[in-house]
Amino acid sequence: MTKTITVIHCWSAPRSRSTALLYSFEARGNTVALDEPLYRRWLEENGGGNLGITRPYEKAFLAGIPPADEDAADAWRWQREQQCFNERIYNAVDTLLNNNDDGGVIFAKQMAKFATLFDFESNWESGESKWKAKCLELLAEKNSQLVHCHVLLVRDPVAVMGSWMNSSDVHGSNPHPDEIGITQLLDVYAKVIGGNHAVVVTDSDDLADDPCTSLRDMCTALNIDFDESMLKWKAGTHECDGPWSKWWYQSVWKSSGWNVGGDDISARRNYRVVPPALLPTLRLSMPAYTFLQTLTTSHKNRALTTPPSGKLYEDPRNEHVLVYVGTPGRTSGNIVPRDLAKISPFDSSVQGGDACWEGVRVYNGRIFHLDHHLNRLFRSAKALGFENVHSREEITDAIFRVLAANGMRDGAHMRLTLTRGEKCTSSMNPLFNVYGTTLIILPEWKPTQGATTYDNEKGISLITAGACRRSPPSTLDNKIHHNNMIQNILPKIQANLAGAADAIMLDVEGFVSETNATNLFMVRYDSQCCYEHNGLESTGEGECSGAVLLTPTSDHCLPGITRETVLILAKELEIKYEVRRVSLSEFYAADEVFTTGTMGELTPVTKIDGRVIGSGKKGIVTEQLQQAYKRSIETRLDWSTEIPNFC
After folding, report:
1. What is the DSSP letter of 183?
2. Long-range Cβ contacts of 234-241 (<8 Å, 24+ apart)
3. Among 69, 156, 225, 515, which is least packed by CB within 10 angstroms?
4. Got the DSSP string for 486-538?
5. Residues 1, 215: contact at Cβ < 8 Å?
6. Average pLDDT for residues 418-430, to the nearest whole number?
7. Residue of 605 and 196 predicted with greater confidence
8. Tell me: the pLDDT tens digits for 552-564?
9. Cα–Cα distance, 229 to 214 (Å, whole number)
């Protein structure tokens, strides 16, 4: 039977708790821990003041002879470093094969800056063949194999650099980015991701906060057993320590393991200054860390609750959807993965909800009512007094670019947000908006019916919002499609708690305005056949064409584009309609009720405040208008904008 030895190559920036992880693996038994076995060669090639890199122990380290003030009993540590990486691996393999029946583990702690000395295709030190060959011969002789894995241990660059300054007497106070090594971690990831070996990215703060879960997850990903012994180690020096350890490891020597179950977070946190001299390195390092952090288990499992659908992404393609963020100017916008998309905390949308927005749908290679939506977006921006605004051509181009990047031509919904833009200082004053508007386009694969929309066949239930009323133009004109959404969110929370889809919002005088998310329509039957069609007892006479469609005026609500489309279709179908103030009791007594909106199109309402509407099912007029709406999407090409071909 073939024995397997797992070789874990752990890459990190300095001050990232890599020594604690080294001790953690050393404690598990059947493991050989190697402390930076490429360090000597790296210092030999880069030391001597090159790139500003100096070490007080450099000459002794390279010579393998301890300094005069070093304990003679530790001379073996200095001599051991004369061995190259491949020889260290050979010796570790020999030890494990002679002392374990089931192989074992080799844990090699490395700084990311050493990666230039490593051949990631073969997983051996580059430029060395003698010891590699000897090790492969030994493995063949013992019917054994090596399985290589890579762990990338990342940490917030602010914490790395703040901690780095504590040892400035060792390495200087103004390190080159290559010294810090966070950017090299990105290069390491690029080299290992295409291989056939396990790659694990772990945030060292997760190790500190929840070591048991983090180590267990790491071991599972590496296909090795988790051992409880990994949580503790002896205080003081360790056999695996490199000879430089007394300059670097004082704090970890004081520990005896991870803080399992500890709740004194402040005891493990230090509030350190990042000197201005380190800011260029910080700016260079942060993008690499931001990307790598998205690959950690903690990031992937960051959701604290379960959404209504029971899964984070109703359509799994949305996990990796690309979004657009940018300021005016053709080269100022970027298409980025959703988990890397960012806007400035100084943006007006963050500072004060100072933005306007539109929801737009994509059907069969066309964007429905794009012109109408852009017209309303620009009207809102003008009413809000935005300056240095994106042009219509820039927004349209950005829409086409992000749709193309995602390959979206059908079954998609886009949220367009136009903010007043980034401020140069925190303030509500628009005079500090000096960079132009910010455009955000969030496209998603989203059906008109689903967990994130509505049920357009069986219908939905509504409740009436309590204290929250839709504001009149004298307070805040709802014809501005703005991002001050708290007036909508509070009723939505009320609906969620009541188990309803949405909440009806009344105006300040008690008339129905709209729901927290959609416009509202009701149907009153004035003909016999309408009642018979819906299985209701007739209360009047006449033909189905006598049905009357009613919708509230737009005095206290947004005059929706889907609402406008329904009124056009009703006229074409010769369905009578009235736009007037409508009371809640009229909606209670209605024969049909439905909502309209870009997201869910036309959705029947079967219950309001516990009262069954009509037959409790979708009515004939709702059905007629739903079908007419779908036909208009397919046939009214003058109502939509064609999406260019993708290449």
Report:
1. H
2. 238/22, 238/23, 238/26, 238/33, 239/26, 240/22, 240/23, 240/26, 240/33, 240/34, 240/35, 241/35, 241/77
3. 69
4. HHHHHHHHHHHHHT-SEEEEEBTTSEEEEESSSEEEEEE--SHHHHHHTT---
5. no
6. 95
7. 605
8. 999 988 999 999 9
9. 14
Both tokens assigned to 515? 């729901």
Give me the percent of the chain exceeding a pLDDT of 70. 93
216: part of which helix (H) or strand (E)?
Answer: helix 211-222
Q: Is the pLDDT of residue 528 over 70?
A: no
d(CA 214, CA 449): 39
Tell me the mean pLDDT in the region 234-246: 94
Give the list of residues 6+ apart from residue 87 with CB closer than 8 angstroms, or none: 131
How far is it, in rounded angstroms, from Cα 593 to Cα 551?
10
pTM of the model: 0.88
Question: How is residue 584 annotated by DSSP?
Answer: H
Are 112 and 161 in contact, with CB atoms under 8 Å apart?
no
| Distance between CA atoms of residues 584 and 510, nearest Å | 8
The tens digit of pLDDT for each residue in 382-404 reads 999 999 999 999 999 999 999 99
Q: Are 154 and 289 in contact (CB under 8 A)?
A: yes
Query: What pairing do the DSSP bridges indicate for beta strands 144-154 and 199-203?
Result: parallel
Is beta strand 511-515 parallel, antiparallel or unpaired with respect to 582-583?
A: antiparallel
pLDDT in tens, 265-310: 444 567 878 888 888 888 999 999 999 999 999 998 888 888 887 8
Q: If you search the block for the tokens 């090795």, which residue do you land on? A: 224
What rounded mean pLDDT belongs to the chain?
Answer: 91
- CB under 8 Å to 597, separation ≥6 — which residues? 359, 517, 518, 519, 560, 562, 603
Which residues touch 103 (CB under 8 Å, ≥6 apart)? 3, 4, 5, 6, 30, 96, 97, 144
Question: At which residue do the structure tokens 């994106």 appear?
Answer: 390
Of the pLDDT bands very low, low, confident and very high (cuts 50, 70, 90), residue 105 is very high
CB 591 within 8 A of CB 614: yes
Nearest to 9 by CA among 94, 103, 124, 140: 124
> In the 3-class helix/strand/coil scheme, how is 53-107 assigned residue by residue?
CCCCCHHHHHHCCCCCCCCHHHHHHHHHCCCCHHHHHHHHHHHHHHHCCCCEEEE
C-alpha 317/C-alpha 309 separation (Å) is 15
Q: Give the closest residue to 162 by CA, choosing from 22, 39, 10, 281.
A: 281
Mean pLDDT, range 369-380, rounded to an integer: 98
Q: What is the pLDDT of residue 274?
A: 82
Tell me which residue of 455, 555, 572 sits closest to 505, measured CA to CA. 555
For residues 478 and 236, the model is more confident at 236
Which pLDDT score is estimated for 168? 61
Which residue matches tokens 């036309």? 602
Which tokens in the block code for residue 155? Answer: 């940490």
Dihedral angle computed from the Cα positions of residues 220, 222, 225 and 226, in that order, rounded to the nearest 10 degrees: -70
Q: How far apart are CA 538 and CA 614, in angstroms?
A: 12
User: What integer is the mean pLDDT of 116-145?
Assistant: 95
Question: Which residue matches tokens 């309590």?
Answer: 466
